[in-house]
Amino acid sequence: MLNKNVHMRDQVTNRIEMIMQEGRFSLMHQLEEFSIAVLLVAVFLVGVGF
After folding, report:
1. Which of the two residues, 37 and 49, has the higher pLDDT score?
2. To 5 degrees, how large is the angle CA 8–CA 3–CA 10?
3. pLDDT (tens digit, 9 = 90+) per residue, 5-14?
4. Predicted local distance difference test score (pLDDT) of residue 49
5. In sequence order, what DSSP letters do the residues of 25-50 get, joined into one string?
6. Each residue of 1-39: b (16+ CB within 10 Å) or e?
7. CA-based angle 8:13:17, to the nearest 5?
8. Among candidates 19, 15, 16, 37, which has minimal Cα distance to 27?
9. Which has the closest alpha carbon to 36: 44, 48, 26?
């Protein structure tokens, strides 16, 4: 019974860590897309400037 409780606690902890990692990767993905968009706009503006 004690081992089962510890196992359930580990499962919940692992699930929370997975959710946190997903959130972090999602944030990094959004940041990456935003930086690519800014880079494309900058290249376009430089191209129009010349």
Report:
1. 37
2. 30
3. 556 677 777 7
4. 84
5. HHHHHHHHHHHHHHHHHHHHHHHHH-
6. eeeeeeeeeeeeeeeeeeeeeeeeeeeeeeeeeeeeeee
7. 145
8. 19
9. 44
